[in-house]
Amino acid sequence: MLKFLRFTCGTSAGLVAQRRLPRTLARTLPVSALMIACATTGRPAMAAFNDTISPFIATSYSYDDNLFRLDDDRLGINGQRSDTSRQVQAGLVFNRPIGRQILSGQAKWSRVYFDHFDQLDYSGKDYLADLEWHIANHLDGHAGVSYTQTLTPFSDFQSTERNLRTVRREYLNGGWRFHPSWQARAGFSRERYGYDLITQRISDRQEDATELGVDFLQSSNSRIGLQLRHLKGSYPNRAGFEALGVEQGYEQDEVKANIYWYVSGITQVQLLGGWVKRKNQLFSVHDASGANGRLTVYWAPLGKVRFTGSLWREFAAVENSLVSSSLNNGASIAAAWDVSAKVRVDALLRRQKRDFSATTGMILPSDVTDSTRTATVGVTYAPRPNIQLGVNAFHDARTGAALINTGSYRANGVSFTASGQF
To answer: Coil, helix or strand for 404?
Structure first.
């Protein structure tokens, strides 16, 4: 189900990219989606509704042969494993200069209908507002809010009942260019995750992140910096579950190098990595520390072909009633090929291994892990600059950990999309 949502949202994002893609909007997309969106920026854009607002509409039809991500040996829900869904979207993107400040964002509404499991039908929402602020000549930053409502993925929590997930985020950050070659940065963000299903509200959580950093800026557009980050997570609905081994919260301290290396117009390298210590609120025996980070390489050997490769080792939250977090090791490679002025092909390969034994409050063996392999491919045809048609296919497979209900499964699917911008 995750892949369907990613592809249908990616179509409208590609249209958005024909205009100036706000920097904060870009941060909300995964690397693969950014490649798809940015691939259209070189095409001429049609005149928008006015100078600041661009409405769009989109629709999709999707098929998933294992909607609930069930184990291979299970027959399905009442004998049914697959389903098809239809989605309609409408929204707008805005980008409004106000003096030196720039107000940008989007508002998107969607409705999804399932053919067989119609109890899952839902309305999705996606709002974002960002203010790019400037004070004098050396102070700038961003302040904003975002809100999303969508169906919770079934990969870690299987339920035939509709379970909507909402994510609210507020943030404020800024930088001070105190020297032509140096800048200091600071920021704060708060994210709140909520689940509609009563049985999963135990996973409701809030994460507060504070960052401080300093960067050395080179004339080549490269950057070398140091970043300090403190993350505090809490679960408001877990009071009284301590005796069952359910963690109540965590804190994470990070010291990382923040490097952007502009090797050439063909190759750029980005690294955010260093040392991380994660402490549990109740079960200190499972505190963990070690190397953590993400390396991303952008490579465009040909004008029409671009690659993005990533390696990561990171702590992450898990949407599971038994465990709260995991240590993830993974790699991905994404490619975009502009076959012609109207046709683009995108592909992605991704593999990730999650280790649950070192980060959860539960008493688990030392080898409780799962591994997920994902492959996607898609073709987009733009008969006009403001119209896109697409077909996308995916394969998703996991070798799971039955002890914590992250089962093994295989899933395949395809989706057809159409979108237009006015």
So the answer is: helix
